[in-house]
């Protein structure tokens, strides 16, 4: 799959995946782009365009096979493989991530939590004891880790991230409110900047007041 | 401000705001789009285009006034006003949000936390006691609330959200993994779907393996 698909399209895929999962739960086997459009509040042409990026799974006048489409999008998103995650920073946010059962259903399994605070060391979050960050090197020796979720303060983020990169981490799920400066450009980073999301909301509040 | 600005541009504004804030901290008074481009790893033409949406703040050959631009973007994003937030669902994620000092610096002040679990009722998070959800009606009587952050299970999300909308809430910061079905179309919703973000990361991991 060397064809370049825009990140905008990719960003919409998890939503398709979610809706298709709900259709499966409801026992729906086939769905037309028009019906999916009505549910998802996206135009049918957008749906056809998006799914065409992946070769298209539909048949004219017949609709999409829900289960097939669900599985294909899953494969495209890499959900056919298990991803092992470690969480760096076991404060409230780190613990929230480690407690989120939904991730495991998608194949994202938390296998370790690390913090620098000795007071919470050893506390168990869904079976995983919080380890001290200094144990990370020996931990990485014995475990396959695919993703590091980073919930450390902004000031520590670059140093911790690069320590992980040196240990062979290739993917970082970054919650620190900073764009990471990494030693290796090939590391994949996905940012969750909660402040940015809140500002976006605040913009839309102002806008909606002015529009009405 | 009735001109329609694309949400894609708006999504980039918080990042400008963050970088400008850092420049102010460093004592930088003026910056050219080229210098900003090098820092932000965005093309200078993208920067000029983005900022032109707001009438443009730069002067040819002179650069941007950092403080002025910071304040103007702040105003556009509604950060010149305080926003009061209540958090519905005081589990790990709700507590993480309530503990995040950074939000307050941006004018987002948590004034209440609510949960249905009597075991955590009364526990204080940065001065705010966790209240029972059944107290929400009387709470709303005496407080101005601008935003409700929703960190409740997917199955409860629509019911809780609509209860808030009936109480006059106009903006929801939704962490439940569902697109809310609201009784009032004028409510502003900003979603933070963590599973979607994780799937996006997983897609890019697969892609980066195939590219290399």
CATH architecture name of the largest domain in chain A: 3-Layer(aba) Sandwich
Instruction: Note the gap between the termini of chain A.
Output: 47 Å
| Largest two-chain interface | A-B, 58 and 58 residues
The major sheet of chain A is characterized as: 7 strands, mixed
- CATH C-level class of the largest domain in chain A is Alpha Beta
How many structural domains can be distinguished in the coordinates of chain A? 2
Which whole number gives the mean pLDDT of chain A?
91
Annotated CATH topology of the largest domain in chain A: Rossmann fold
Number of helices of chain A: 9
Please give the number of β-strands of chain A: 9
The H/E string of chain A reads HEHHEHEHHEEEHEHEEH
Question: Overall 3D geometry of chain A?
Answer: globular
Unreliable stretches of chain A (pLDDT < 50, length at least 5) are: none
**Assembly classification:** homodimer
Determine the structural class of chain A based on helices, strands and strand pairing.
Answer: alpha/beta
Give me the side-by-side strand order of the main sheet of chain A.
5-6-4-3-7-8-9
At the fourth level of CATH, the homologous superfamily of the largest domain in chain A is NAD(P)-binding Rossmann-like Domain
Binned strand content of chain A: 15-25%
What value does the Rg of chain A take, in angstroms?
20 Å
